[in-house]
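Researcher: For the annotation table, I need structure tokens for NIPSNAP protein. Please keep the output clean. Sequence:
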Amino acid sequence: MIKTAKQAKAIFEKHGAEFLRLSRFHTGTWAGEFLIATRYSSWEVYGKVQEALAKDEAFAKLYAHTATCAELTGRNIAIGIDL
């Protein structure tokens, strides 16, 4: 999973994501599961990255590989609040 996430990080950041991070839950309901988080500077950048990923052959190949060893169980969009 770490090797795959490193490859995904390079692709996402190439297209404009601020970062891609991999975390692993050690407690709670999702103990043992992985979490991928990405961040974008704006909705416009988010849209551009998503469009670029949809056309990126390396990403399509990596996504297909990932589907053989992992399962996407959810997707969320969280928006930060400046305090």
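Researcher: And a one-line annotation?
Model: The CA atoms of residues 15 and 49 lie 5 Å apart.
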